[in-house]
Amino acid sequence: MLKIQILGTGCSKCKKLAENAHIAAEALGIQYELEKVTDINDIMAFGVMMTPALAVNGQVKFSGKVPPPDDIQPYLQNTSLDLFLKS
To answer: Catalytic: which of 11, 40, 81, 83?
Structure first.
């Protein structure tokens, strides 16, 4: 199962990124878990200096912006394909 993490303090941009990630994952029909990481120390442990940020399976894919669902989908597809090939 894909793990999507939204890194941010819960601001409106963080909420929008979570919504867009949800829309992207649902459109692809993949199984996923959406986690919101709001603790600043946990966010910094990812090496993120600008929020919101999106991590997929623990790897940060981008930070400091809120891309539309269509721009998020490739990050989810490539990662889910990697998981499939490893299993």
So the answer is: 11
Q: What is the DSSP string of 31-85?
A: -EEEEEE--HHHHHHTT--SSSEEEETTEEEEES----HHHHHHHHHHHHHHHHH
Q: Is 16 a catalytic residue?
A: no
User: Is 73 designated active site?
Assistant: no
In one-letter notation, the amino acid at residue 82 is D
The pLDDT tens digits for 35-76 are: 999 999 999 999 999 999 999 999 999 999 999 999 999 999
Q: 2: which residues sit within 8 A by CB, 6+ positions away?
A: 25, 30, 31, 32, 33, 56, 57, 76, 79, 80, 83
Which CATH topology does 2-86 take?
A: Glutaredoxin (3.40.30)
pTM of the model: 0.87
Write down the catalytic residue from 4, 6, 7, 14: 14
